[in-house]
Amino acid sequence: MAHSQGDHGGRDCLAGAIDCDIHPAVPSTRVLLPYLDDYWREHILRRGLERENLETSSYPANAPINCRPDWRLPSGPPGSSLAALQSHLLDRLRPSFAICNVIHGAQVMLSEDLSAALCRAINNWIRAEWLDQDPRLRASIVVPPHSAELAAEEIERCAPDRRFVQVLLLAMTELPLGRRQNWPIYRAAEAHGLPIGIHAGSSFRHPPSALGWPSYYLEDYVSQSQGFAAALNSLVSEGVFVKFPALKVVLIESGVTWLPASLWRLDKTWRGVRSEVPWLEQLPTETVRKHVRLTLQPFDAPPTEKQLQTLLEQLGSDRMLLFSSDYPHWHFDGDDALPAGLPADLVRKICVDNPLETYPRLKETMR
Ligand code: ZN
Question: Is the residue at 287 inside a domain?
Fold first, then answer.
């Protein structure tokens, strides 16, 4: 997103912002070994899994979008160095907090037990090697999403550490996210004041498009917004926000432009068939504006500022967008992490007010 530093896009206005999506990468499964219990350490060594890094990103590893050229590391996967994160982002843009979202094969394992063991190890690793090392960092709890019971246990285990500020899921999992089998996750999250972050991604139990398996990564990536739309439709229609009225959901790396059209269809159809979902007593759009937030990058902004204004009007709320850099992925150059054309008062909301409202645990240590 090209525009000059000096207006609201530059470094100064980002100082004190809350970056709601950064991606520390597990450099290799070997680094997790000390954070596993004895049984799982031996299990992984026997299977030779320590030789794999269990990376799930579908980004082609060497594609420019996978990592900004100036953020690549001499060795190791992008995002795997705390020192690099500090110099590239934390010391340069000076956010007050950055929320670590680890995307890892642990979230897609078919074995629920192995999935849970690796998620525990990742949460222990991020706590010891990132959160303990830099007071600006916060993290999402990584959970085994295909076992709601084990996921809820992991939320209970991690929640007492107030630096965990969210529970992380992927948009496309085994079941639509609103289904009642998933509710133990939402119950535990709500009880601890933790939003559910739903990041772009799939556990590939199903094709990313409703049509079947695509041939190209281009199709996979563009289909993500359909996955988010379906996940949101499921959460709203199944009544998750009625059952858990204090729950917030953050759609992370979903883009924004798909949302108004999707909500329009949801509202219109709800008017016609609302008798089958009698627990939905208000327009789906009103529920979404109250409970759902979206991170900013990558912002699929329309090409002109006028069109951007129209999009913001269609969203109908200035409380929904949360600042994110999506470090280390390449969505902007230099320090221009904010799209051009956002009004100054909205920038303040996106960077500070909305994240603080969404993540109440951040307020406890806000400087
Ligand atoms: Zn992301």
Answer: yes
